[in-house]
Design brief:
The protein has helices at 14-24, 50-60, 94-103, 106-115, 125-128, 168-177, and strands at 4-7, 34-37, 69-72, 86-89, 119-123, 159-161, 182-184, 190-192. By secondary structure, the chain is α/β, with parallel strands linked by helices. The protein has one domain: 3-Layer(aba) Sandwich (Rossmann fold). The strands form 2 sheets. A 6-stranded mixed β-sheet has the order 3-2-4-5-1-8, sandwiched between helices. Strands 6-7 form a two-stranded parallel sheet. Strand 2 (34-37), helix 2 and strand 3 form a beta-alpha-beta unit.
């Protein structure tokens, strides 16, 4: 299938870009429409949101026209996913994002989108939610929604951990506590599933 891109910071590595262009077809970029979901950033308590502009630029750097990128907040309105080729799930607070997805049953939409062989790009929390569990986020995200069920969407078999280059001690400790498969995402890199 190879239509899921798990990243920490977007598709910025040349190998990921090459896989993206192979999947999408570089000659079709002018017509590609992206649903840019920024919901997770609403749950992020950090006042500095400059990273959002940097991340948005990673989509433009792929050659996608700005007017073809539509920002969306889950639950704020209905969206016709059939009009989009790419779902870009931005990072922010992992617990907040999964909570909003559950409350709006958007997990059904994500799974259908992926099953329709459309491209899903996850960035940070947007990647992490696809794993079996988000409980690892307790080590670095604020559980500002009081979540007690940390079950992820289960689209990826294992734990997805973004920004691993900034979490070496946490990951080393985690490896001694769990035998779950881990997908370690380093800034600048990613995995195509």
């Amino acid at each position: 299938m190879e239509n899921i891109f798990l990243t920490s910071c977007g598709v910025i590595n040349q190998n990921l870009k090459d896989a993206f262009y192979t999947k999408i077809g570089k000659n079709k970029l002018n017509n590609i429409r992206v649903l840019y979901i920024t919901t997770a950033s609403d749950g992020d308590t950090d006042d500095d949101k400059s990273w959002m502009d940097i991340e948005f630029k990673t989509i433009l750097d792929l050659g996608i026209a700005k007017e073809n990128i539509i920002e969306y907040k889950i639950g704020k309105s209905q969206v016709d996913l059939s009009k989009f080729d790419i779902m870009y799930m931005m990072g922010g607070n992992t617990f907040y994002l999964l909570d909003i997805i559950r409350k709006n049953r958007f997990d059904i939409d994500i799974k259908k989108f992926i099953n329709d062989d459309k491209i899903y790009i996850g960035s940070s929390a947007g990647s992490e939610i696809l794993g079996n569990s988000i409980d690892v986020a307790l080590g670095y995200d604020e559980n500002n929604v009081g979540m007690t069920d940390f079950t992820g969407l289960g689209i990826v078999d294992g734990l997805v951990i973004p920004h691993c280059n900034r979490k070496k001690n946490f990951i080393n400790s985690l490896k001694t506590k769990t035998n779950k498969k881990m997908y370690l995402l380093y800034d600048g890199d990613g995995i195509v599933v």
